[in-house]
Amino acid sequence: MTARRAASARATINDVAAVAGVSRGTVSRVLNSEAYVSDAARSAVTDAISKVGYVRNSAARNLATRQSHAVGLVVHEPHSLFLEDPNIGSILLGINSALSDADYQLVSLVIDSERDSHRVAEYLSGGFVDGVIIVSARAHDPIAKVVAELGIAAAFVGHPVDIEGIPYVGIDNFSAAKAITTKLKETGRRRIGMIAAGLDRDSGQDRMAGFRAALGDAFDPDLVITTPLYAHTSGIDGMRLLLDRAPDIDGVFAASDAMAAGVLDVLREVGRSVPGDVGVVGFDDSAWATRAQPPLSTVHQPAGQLGRRAAESVLAQLRGETVDTAGIFLETAIVWRDSA
Amino acid sequence: MTARRAASARATINDVAAVAGVSRGTVSRVLNSEAYVSDAARSAVTDAISKVGYVRNSAARNLATRQSHAVGLVVHEPHSLFLEDPNIGSILLGINSALSDADYQLVSLVIDSERDSHRVAEYLSGGFVDGVIIVSARAHDPIAKVVAELGIAAAFVGHPVDIEGIPYVGIDNFSAAKAITTKLKETGRRRIGMIAAGLDRDSGQDRMAGFRAALGDAFDPDLVITTPLYAHTSGIDGMRLLLDRAPDIDGVFAASDAMAAGVLDVLREVGRSVPGDVGVVGFDDSAWATRAQPPLSTVHQPAGQLGRRAAESVLAQLRGETVDTAGIFLETAIVWRDSA
DNA sequence: CTTCCGTCTGGGAACGCTCCCAGTCGCGAT
DNA sequence: ATCGCGACTGGGAGCGTTCCCAGACGGAAG
Question: For residue B36, is pLDDT > 60?
């Protein structure tokens, strides 16, 4: 008698109202902790709620209020991202913490196929979320386009070149790359190469430009290897190529820590000491950097902050504030360890 | 005139009906691709849809149908998980692909604080998702408890000891640990130690038990180091301790690849060769295994399948099928590389 | 010509909330 | 005694769908 299966017929606000002996309106007011509810009514309602085991039906609430109190995070290519980009975890945590403070629920949506892409677009436009954060979108990203057209609150982490009017948060890749290359040069290196990646995004382009700017006249295009992915294996292949082209190479800037780790592996294999024979620097200050032998000198990205700021921008839009769409650039820092 | 801002007032099914000159019911039938709609009506509706820029409001749909076509994935402690457990990415992809096939949307929910925990519980009970998958829940997990009480469709990846009646997918940790330890022993090792972790879950306990079973009389409790986390640093600390206790140690089973990588680092540091002086085996067959020097012999986990099977179980429950709550154990395989 | 059935359509009635208007009550000020 | 106002409550209307029943239509079978 007592233990009815809750799954089949869930208690509604009306049941609560009936048990508490008040009206629907009063229950709603208690639920949303509004003013103008007498203590007696309030406690009658809370008692009734626990008695009937009431949980609010969000679908109905969303329908009535036209908001969901949820923000989506769109993650592309989860495979490469989770495995190769250790910053995604910190970004996610930063987003979550900012949303959590505002009592918004973060829901992550993974895109792994064409079909996913459509479904997610529908999900976003269907009122499941009030806003969206998109991480590392490439140019011509279909989701980014849908979001832009829909006019839904949104922010990017990283800068998609072809989308205007949506705020984004990022770092100054050019300056950071220039700074660490300069520092590497100042350790007395004469022949410095680079392994570049992700040239289909601003970030990749800018890191390469920064490298070039730092080197000035000493820049030699032959010593720049470009690969599509920021992967460990890209670092290995790239370094082999560099050694082929310039056996006298004495410095390498890898555009990610994962690639820098690959560079170290090759150098160890061919018996060159680091930082004795060759100085190596990376980018990201990810877990790769501290694990590497020797630990990498690299550029620290404020990944958590990146996420947090993007989330805050979305929340501000949700509050109806107008936000700057110019882009926010956070400070990076050089972390000097033992690899150069 | 033409380009009205879509954000403010979105077209509803009624607008579509009006423009198409049919009734609400017919539009709904077209939307859900039901039978019994004339070709004329169908094309009038599709035309009207694109004309007014209609997108379906899911909140209303969920309310009416009492389902959301979404499944939640609850991820605890994202920090340690994303950084230390490289399998989570594959599990996620496996889940996503299974759900995607059934046209269900995966939404990942991160739990990083007490408050998150409450909010997620509310989210799950509020009708945002039809089912839920929980990865690596510990004992006394509050979310797991809520899910169990709610009677919502659910599945676990990994086995939470204190929850009954919910299906789970896992591997046979005991047999796998026993098998790889046996194989290590067969390379002629006499003094084999273990670095165990995660003893607050079945998986950790079982790996230790498997190790013990493989060794039989040769088992020496002093040669088992236990640490809470499956982390790289745990491996480093553990190996130092083992060398202290048994300088003549010639084999190590680390309960994760990350720890095994730490073991290798220490052995290199003290000048012991691998696999010459010491044979090392890990567990997971994660990216750590192939990156390590030398590459690790380890236990391969079918991570993608783990996720897929869990998702399929949830989908089956959603179709109203009764599923076996006994637990599904997937096959592991030993991958023999160069570290032993 | 009637009957029956399959095809197609319209629209009332939910679904479970929130919003908001109308109204009651009690109390201090006039 | 009357008024005004703040505190509180009830309940109708509406959010945008789906569900489903009633009914129209047309053609084949009797």
Answer: yes
- In order, the DSSP letters of A163-179 are --SS-EEEE-HHHHHHH
Compute the distance between CA of residue B302 and CA of residue B90 in angstroms, rounded to an integer.
9
Q: How far is B245 from chain A (nearest CA, A)?
A: 26
Q: Is the CB of A42 under 7 A from strand C?
A: no
Whether the CB-CB separation of B284 and B301 falls below 8 Å is answered with: yes
- Report chain D positions within 7 A of protein CB atoms: 7-12, 14-21
In this prediction, residue A7 has a pLDDT band, given cuts at 50, 70 and 90, of very low
The spacing between the Cα labelled CA in B21 and the C1' in D28, in angstroms, equals 31
> Does B100 sit within 8 Å of A119, measured CB to CB?
yes
Mention every residue, 6+ apart, whose C-beta is less than 8 A from residue A123.
A72, A109, A129, B58, B70, B105
The residue count for chain B: 340
Contacts of A108 (CB under 8 A, 6+ apart): A72, A73, A75, A92, B107, B108, B109, B110
Q: Which residues of A50-63 are buried (b: 16+ CB within 10 A; e: fewer)?
A: eebebbbbbbbbbb
Q: What is the mean pLDDT of residues B309-319?
A: 94
A128–B70: do the CB atoms touch at under 8 Å? yes
Please state, in angstroms and rounded to a whole number, the distance separating the CA atoms of residues B166 and A300: 43
Q: Which residues of A touch B68 (CB under 8 A)?
A: 59
Q: What is the pLDDT of residue B86?
A: 64
Q: What is the share, in percent, of chain B residues with pLDDT greater than 70? A: 94
Shortest Cα–Cα distance, B50 to chain A (Å): 14
The pLDDT of residue A77: 66
Nearest to A105 by CA among A82, A134, A130, A88: A130
Please determine, for residue A148, whether its predicted confidence score (pLDDT) is greater than 90. Answer: no
Q: Do the Cβ atoms of B7 and A55 come within 8 Å? A: no
Region A77-102: what's the mean pLDDT? 77
- Whole-number Å distance, CA B36 to C1' C6? 10
Single-letter amino acid code for the residue at B148: A
Q: Decide if A105 and B109 are in contact by the 8 Å CB cutoff.
A: yes
Position B113 scores a pLDDT of 84
Q: Is the pLDDT of residue B9 over 70?
A: no
Amino acid B1: pLDDT:
28
Hey, are the CB atoms on A261 and B110 less than 8 Å from each other?
A: no
A89: nearest CB among B62, B78, B232: B78
Peptide bond into A294 cis (omega under 30): yes
As separate numbers, helices (DSSP H) first and strands (DSSP E) second, chain B gives: 14, 12
Q: How near does any CA of chain A get to the CA of B217, in Å?
A: 37
Query: What are chain B's domains?
Result: 13-56 (no CATH), 70-171+304-331 (3.40.50.2300), 173-300 (3.40.50.2300)
Which pLDDT belongs to residue B225? Answer: 97
| From A6-15, A39-48, A85-94, A285-294, the region with the lowest mean pLDDT | A6-15
Instruction: Tell me the mean pLDDT in the region A38-51.
Output: 92
d(CA B208, CA B213): 9
Q: Which amino acid is at A34?
A: E
- Residue B75: closest C-alpha in chain A: A108
Most A-contacting residue of B107, B123, B318 (CB-CB within 10 A), to test interface: B107
